[in-house]
Amino acid sequence: MNIIVTGGAGFIGSNFIFHMLKEHPDYRIVCLDKLTYAGNLSTLQPVMDNPNFRFVKLDICDREGVYKLFEEEHPDMVVNFAAESHVDRSIENPEIFLNTNIIGTATLMDACRKYGIKRYHQVSTDEVYGDLPLDRPDLFFTEETPIHTSSPYSSSKAGADLLVLAYHRTYGLPVTISRCSNNYGPYHFPEKLIPLMIINCLHDKPLPVYGEGLNVRDWLYVEDHCRAIDLIIHNGRVGEVYNVGGHNEMKNIDIVKLICKALDKPESLITHVTDRKGHDMRYAIDPTKIHNELGWLPETKFADGIKKTIQWYLDNESWWQPIISGEYQNYYEEMYGNR
Ligand SMILES: NC(=O)c1ccc[n+]([C@@H]2O[C@H](COP(=O)([O-])OP(=O)(O)OC[C@H]3O[C@@H](n4cnc5c(N)ncnc54)[C@H](O)[C@@H]3O)[C@@H](O)[C@H]2O)c1
């Protein structure tokens, strides 16, 4: 099996590559990544010398480059993680989200149509369903919940999902989609809530919380998401959407307090800042379908996952420090510039 994993130098994509090379040592994994600010090649250092792994620096919107890669690699599957993924950035500059998340997805699927593929898998998000009210804890997103987006980010992801389903219906492309809740774990980019709070705590810096911090997210340990995708690409039904979530709802403010406590830092570091525009209140996934059809259940409890994550950031300052200083963006040039 030869799998192209796009966006594999990012948070979830890199964890997925590690998972696949460990669980399927006979598979070939080709990582295609543009190395935007969110991609960090040093993350993939542990697998760079694996003979079953190849890294290719490429934009998923580069049609010629993508077609050339398909001609070289004849992939059996494509798993598309590549995306602009930060809601705040999408509010500042929506255009790049439309390009990468929608045009890029179409470009990859056009290559799949042209060269043939056993499976195209789109990694999507629960944010395509919009949000749920805080006072209705009985409500959850199912795969039938209407698409109802709030941010340019979630709208671009929803646009991509609709295209993926349209390519299945119109061209018979063998697609699947997973819509996952918020992930946490190793290699999470320091601008996102959990790593930001851990790193600010370590530096005794203020912990900026949007509004009152009452927004609820359904947190899933990244390895559980990777296992879900592995199951879907092998056993999921073509043309289907699978929600992935762990029934682990937490208020942002409680997460921040928990991190303070774990690192023995005072809650007085918490500062409330102006809320994000259009901030979704609550996300909550109903994962019944993936459980019933594919037997998936999350394995890592939040209490254990957050401990492991905090410890990982304590042990891996050499990974996040260059990101904070901006040095990491020179890494590719240093590694590959003269080759
Ligand atoms: N992080 C979460 O909690 C979460 C939850 C559900 C779904 N998702 C989805 O999972 C996917 C991965 O998320 P993440 O948090 O790992 O993101 P990330 O921002 O950490 O990584 C994105 C990766 O994509 C690459 N990339 C961006 N534009 C590209 C382009 N045009 N061509 C090639 N590569 C490009 C970046 O260099 C980076 O390596 C995204 O599609 C996101 O929508 C994320």
Compute the number of strand runs: 13
Q: What is the residue-mean pLDDT, rounded to a whole number? A: 95
Which structural category fits the helices and strands?
alpha/beta
What characterizes the major β-sheet?
Answer: 7 strands, parallel
Overall radius of gyration: 19 Å
Beta-strand percentage? 15-25%
Query: What oligomeric state do these chains adopt?
Result: single chain
Give the count of structural domains.
Answer: 1
Fourth-level CATH superfamily: NAD(P)-binding Rossmann-like Domain
Feature tags:
binds nicotinamide-adenine-dinucleotide; alpha/beta; seven-stranded parallel beta sheet; Rossmann fold; 13 strands; 339 residues
Give a nutshell description of this structure:
The protein is an alpha/beta fold and 339 residues long. It has twelve helices and 13 strands.
Describe the structure.
This protein is 42% helix and 17% strand. The two termini are 29 Å apart. Helix 2 (63-73) packs parallel to helix 4 and helix 4 (95-115) runs parallel beside helix 5. It has a single domain (2-188, 221-248, 278-300), classed as Rossmann fold (3-Layer(aba) Sandwich). It has helices at residues 11-23, 63-73, 87-92, 95-115, 152-171, 193-202, 222-235, 252-262, 288-294, 302-315, 317-325, 331-336, and strands spanning 2-6, 28-33, 53-57, 77-80, 119-125, 175-180, 183-184, 207-210, 216-218, 220-221, 240-244, 249-251, 270-273. The site of nicotinamide-adenine-dinucleotide has 30 residues, from helix 1, helix 4 and strand 5.
